[in-house]
Write a structure and sequence with these properties.
The protein is an alpha/beta fold. The chain contains 29 helices and 19 strands. Helix 5 packs across helix 6, helix 5 crosses helix 11 and helix 25 crosses helix 28. Bound molecules: 3-hydroxybutanoyl-coenzyme A. InterPro entries: 3-OHacyl-CoA_DH_CS, 3-OHacyl-CoA_DH_NAD-bd, 3HC_DH_C, 6-PGluconate_DH-like_C_sf, ClpP/crotonase-like_dom_sf, Enoyl-CoA_hyd/isom_CS, Enoyl-CoA_hydra/iso, NAD(P)-bd_dom_sf.
Length: 724
């Protein structure tokens, strides 16, 4: 267990170096604040101390305020455990002190960590240190003066951008902006900081209290305009979240009434937001995401991940080229195999387009793009497979083809090589049936576009070895994905969980609800696309294939809607040919197409499920629930069958794989905020009127009747069906 502590050393030059330590990221836990206050008070008192250097231990300044404290507040509702750091420590003890303090920043200074540094009188950083205020991503605002000091150091526009995006900058940019006073190598960090502190004390360098400087804020009308524009933008990009507008209000308060008044308002709003449901949800997602790295019997049995230097990707289609892109971007050598040179060239071209796209969006430098592309080699046979550490097969969903490939790669690859399939539906036991290497066969299910979407579903069978899972998790982390380990079943965790999403939407349309209204309500709820626009984007082939697959495994709860086939019959293929539920034209937003309405009518006539032949009457809230509660119901089955290690893994998977709004905490977390009982009773009612699709699962019924949250651990998966 890590111990949070603060130490102080005073040397002959009269500089007190105060070092705080709380591995692994020096999070500012409550004892750190206590320790800082004590050491600063001592340093101010001692006559042998002329100046202070504040630093974090082990090559990191700080990852910010201890987020566990937020969790504690969420559990207990007790806001009094939040310390008054902002005025008590930062203003009174550090910034307004009679001795200067210099922050020596290595590694990172985020959130409260950066705010601590902003309260110092100068900041020295190592190259490439990350500096940012990501509090909004946790549903709060900076609470230790960041909303006031950052604009005063870097200017209002940049500060607003940094806070609203939560994205950090590097120390080099910080230096240009005036946030950092000097960038020096790690070996010189303390030496330069000590001298800087002495120079301030000796008035050879400026003694700057950043809360009081004004010159970078611009005129009041300029500030008003900038904040007004940011508000308009936030209303669109951050709807349903209070922290963005709250942050802008607090910044504005300081611009109008001065930094100190701003700090007081900031502290008040910060506390209010810590208690908000949005913060509760986002903090949950933060810890849930980290929990996915802990997989029982894989990460806790002393195994060491093996290095993966070279990966073979089979298939240069959309998925294969996306996967290869993600790998080469992280400096992993890739051989891309195709069956002929035409397909191979097409695959390589797609990868080049992916990489150039990142350059044009300024996400990648030209140099790094060239470096990434130099890690790629196209091949037409298996000769390059003799020294690969991992193969990812990404060909079409065809069982005999996959089986053939797996028996070939078993022979072509070294015995340690992991044999992974990117299948999204096919049982991995069947994929590997013709090999004797079941222990190294695993699913590596990426989400399209694979170089962009952050989730990697790692699917294990009963036979997959812990080492293979660990190695794939490590590759996933290296290529900046969040790996979630799941069990083997139809659709695995994410696709299976969200199959009822589009089914529910189709039932509603056939019951008489408007297609476009459904999409609008779902996007208002927070998903980026409604179910019908999503179907347009994915292509109707996917919809038809998944319905076929799922209906054969889950016939009791598959609804057959003829709508997609009718659309295809009418020459509509979704975004592919510019005509789906919506019309797609270059350069303009998708427009609902009224010509779809007669096709919808035809579908309704064929299914004939409207009670009394009339459209049903439902509220907007019910429409959302009739689509999302069946998803919750399926999540319950997934939990019951032990497909995921813990409920929060499904939250992460739903947020990162299906873009379920993170500020609602993920599918299970959200269901618990709604209440298992309400979900159960609603489903039960609908199942009586509209049929089996809505029938509550046994797991849901049990949890609802016993008042147990859906997220509570599953003691024993029912009927010995655990897949993990
Ligand atoms: C008053 C203030 O304004 C309020 C605040 O400061 S709110 C906090 C603001 N800070 C942040 O949002 C930063 C959150 N942390 C991060 O983004 C990332 O953890 C990081 C960039 C610091 C490090 O990333 P990475 O190296 O990938 O390590 P990561 O796995 O995320 O974290 C390592 C461990 O540190 C923990 N950790 C990271 N930051 C933490 C924090 N601020 N508080 C508590 N624990 C933290 C993680 O939970 C994880 O714990 P685990 O090993 O038990 O799972």
């Amino acid at each position: 267990m890590a111990v949070a502590r603060v130490t102080m050393e005073v040397e002959n030059d009269g500089v007190a170096v105060i070092t705080f330590s709380n591995p692994p990221v020096n999070a500012l836990a409550l004892p750190i604040f206590e320790g800082l206050k004590q050491k600063f008070t001592e340093a101010m008192r001692r006559i042998d101390v002329k100046a202070i250097v504040l630093t974090g231990k082990d090559g990191k300044f700080s990852g910010g305020f201890d987020i566990n404290v937020f969790e504690m507040v969420h559990k207990t509702g007790d806001l009094s455990i939040l310390p008054d750091v902002s005025v008590d420590l930062l203003v009174n003890v550090i910034e307004d002190a009679k001795k200067p303090t210099v922050a020596a920043i290595a590694g990172l200074a985020l959130g409260g960590g950066l705010e601590l540094a902003l309260g110092c009188h100068a900041r020295i950083a190592v190259p490439k240190a990350q500096l940012g205020l990501p509090e909004l991503s946790l549903g709060v605002i900076p609470g230790s003066g960041g909303t006031q000091r950052l604009p005063r150091l870097v200017g209002l526009s940049k500060a607003v951008e940094m806070m609203l995006s939560s994205r950090p900058i590097m120390s080099e940019e910080g230096k240009e902006l005036g946030l950092i006073d000097a960038v020096v190598p790690l070996e010189e960090l303390l030496k330069v900081s000590r001298q800087w502190a002495l120079d301030i004390a000796g008035r050879r360098k400026p003694w700057i209290r950043s809360l009081h400087i004004m010159d970078k804020l611009g005129s009041l009308p300029e500030a008003h305009d900038l904040i007004k524009m940011a508000r308009q933008q936030a209303k669109q990009t951050a709807k349903n979240m209070p922290q963005h507008l709250a942050c802008l209000d607090v910044i504005e308060e300081g611009v109008i009434h001065g930094g100190y008044i701003g700090v007081l308002k900031e502290a008040k709003v910060f506390k209010e937001l810590v208690a908000s449901v949005t913060s509760k949800a986002l903090v949950h997602v933060f810890f849930a995401q980290r929990a996915t790295a802990k997989v029982p019997n894989v990460t806790d049995i002393g195994l060491k991940p093996r290095m993966t230097k070279k990966v073979a990707v089979i298939g240069g289609g959309l998925m294969g080229s996306g996967i290869a892109t993600a790998l080469i971007l992280s400096n992993i050598y890739v051989v891309l195999k195709e069956i002929n040179s035409e397909y191979l060239l097409r695959g390589i071209k797609t990868i080049e387009v992916n990489i150039r796209g990142l350059v044009s969006r300024k996400r990648l430098t030209q140099d790094n793009a060239e470096k990434a592309l130099s890690m790629l080699k196209g091949v037409l046979d298996y000769s390059e497979f003799k020294d690969v550490d991992l193969v990812i097969e990404a060909v079409i969903e065809d069982v005999p083809l996959k089986q053939k490939i797996f028996s070939e790669i078993e022979k072509a690859c070294p015995p340690h090589c992991i044999l992974a399939s990117n299948t999204s539906t096919i049982d991995l036991n069947i994929v590997g049936e013709k090999t004797r290497s079941q222990d190294r066969i695993v699913g590596a299910h990426f989400f399209s576009p694979a170089h962009v979407m952050p989730l990697l579903e790692i699917v294990r069978t009963e036979k997959t070895s812990p080492q293979a899972i660990l190695d794939l998790m490590t590759v996933g982390k290296t290529i900046k994905k969040v790996p979630v380990v799941v069990g083997n079943c139809t659709g695995f965790a994410v696709n299976r969980n969200f199959f009822p999403y589009s089914q529910g939407a189709h039932i509603l349309v056939n019951l008489g609800v408007d297609v476009f209204k459904i999409d609008r309500l779902i996007t208002d709820f927070g998903l980026p696309l409604g179910p019908f626009q999503l179907q347009d984007l994915a292509g109707y082939g996917v919809a038809v294939a998944t319905t076929k697959e799922f209906s054969s495994y889950f016939p009791d709860r598959t609804f057959y809607s003829p709508l997609v086939e009718l659309l295809m019959k009418n020459g509509r293929n979704g975004k592919n040919n510019g005509k789906g539920y919506y019309i797609y034209e270059k350069g303009s937003k998708p427009k609902p197409d009224p010509l779809v309405l007669p096709i919808v009518e035809e579908s309704r006539r064929l299914t004939n499920i409207m009670p009394g032949g009339k459209p049903i009457t439902v509220t907007d809230q019910e429409i959302i629930e009739m689509i999302l509660f069946p998803v919750v119901n399926e999540a319950c089955r997934v939990l019951d069958e032990g497909i995921v290690v813990r409920a929060s893994d499904l939250d992460v998977a739903s947020v990162l794989g299906m873009s379920f709004p993170s500020y609602r905490g993920g599918i299970v977390f959200w269901a618990d905020t709604v209440g298992a009982n309400h979900v159960y009773r609603s489903l039960k009612k609908w199942s009586q009127v509209y049929g089996n699709f809505y029938k509550p699962s046994q797991f849901l019924e049990e949890r609802a009747s016993r008042g147990i949250p859906l997220s509570a651990p599953v003691s024993t998966p029912s009927a010995s069906r655990s897949r993990m």
